[in-house]
Amino acid sequence: MNPYLLLTPGPVSTSKLVKQAMLSDWCASDDNYHQEIVEVIRSKLVSLATMGEGYTSVLMQGSDTASLEACFGTLINKTDKLLIINNGADGKRMVQIAQSLKIAHTVIESVETTFLDLAAISKRLQDDPQITHIAMVHCETATGMLNPAQQVGNLAHEFGKVYFLDAMNTFGGIPFDLADWYVDVMISTASHCIQGVPGVGFVVCKQTLLEQSKGQARALSLDLYEQWHTMHTLQGKWRFSSPTHVVRAFYQALIELEREGGIAARYTRYLVNQQGLVLGMKALGFEPLLPEELHSPIVTAFHCSQAPEYNFHDFYEALKEQGFVIYPSTVTTADVVQIANIGEVYLKDIADFLDAVERSCFWL
């Protein structure tokens, strides 16, 4: 049923049991569904995200971007000002959401291949006391850069700001604790490092922030407060139609994460995958875009071949015919190819992929 392995940053290849979980139909109003599936997911997410107190979680229908937009549109009021830290396509999306929602904001931008300047962020916070919230991306998908989320959290705490962390590509695959990093609001999805399927995003955040946001939402279906309040008071029920099959797959994916040994064990697998990928691609003449100290264990961007015969489409199709799908990059400063190593992917899969790459280098 699945002719190829996804080496993309999301969606990812899933296990057979996650796929099988979607083969049964579920009634969203049934107690077995919303109490034994939805509420268990919500509890597990908080436990995975932090050992701190005062956090809660809420699931949202739709893409990860929908959850991010729900957060901005609900938790930031009309008198607040948002600082967006942008060094890639995912950060740019934050800016677009703020513009669309007419949220007062300011942006610190960095070149995609350059590590964020923490001193510049600190100075902006000093110079602009109107800033109330900070938002940044943990791992920029386009380049694979792992941003200094903990250090920015320290700055948010120092200056007394609410801190949003977009952890779409990292939560479930990289160990961290929201309370330790002073993260007030984390946004992620079932379909990346959790290894579920697309269709459900989620937010783990300070419950007090949600309680204070009643009536602030700029949209009906993306009202994060009302979604949380309904789930919180009615034991896992959804305001509108629940994506039951996707949620059941999410539940199964969380069970498999536990069986693997938790986030720390999954991080180790991803790291081994990524290191093997980099070594093998370099041996075939593909140099990473970033220096290795900036790499994430999630996705890596490689410079494309400079051979006149090379073109991405032919390379992509040659790999797809052999059972592997990669991703065209959205990096604007270089011609690169994006290869992720998350999902139901193991070191043997990376070795098989590298063999396929070697066979696909028709320009050599």
Your description of this structure?
Keywords: Aminotransferase, Pyridoxal phosphate, Pyruvate, Transferase. Helix content is 40%, strand content 15%. The model has no long low-confidence stretch (mean pLDDT 95). The protein is built from 12 helices and 12 strands. Strands 2-8-7-6-5-3-4 form a 7-stranded mixed β-sheet, with helices on both faces. It folds into 2 domains: 5-9 and 261-360, Aspartate Aminotransferase, domain 1; 16-259, Aspartate Aminotransferase, domain 2 (3-Layer(aba) Sandwich). The protein has 364 residues and is an alpha/beta fold. It is globular and about 60 Å long.
Which descriptors apply to this entry?
364 residues; seven-stranded mixed sheet; Aspartate Aminotransferase, domain 2; Aspartate Aminotransferase, domain 1; three-stranded antiparallel sheet; 2 domains; single chain; alpha/beta
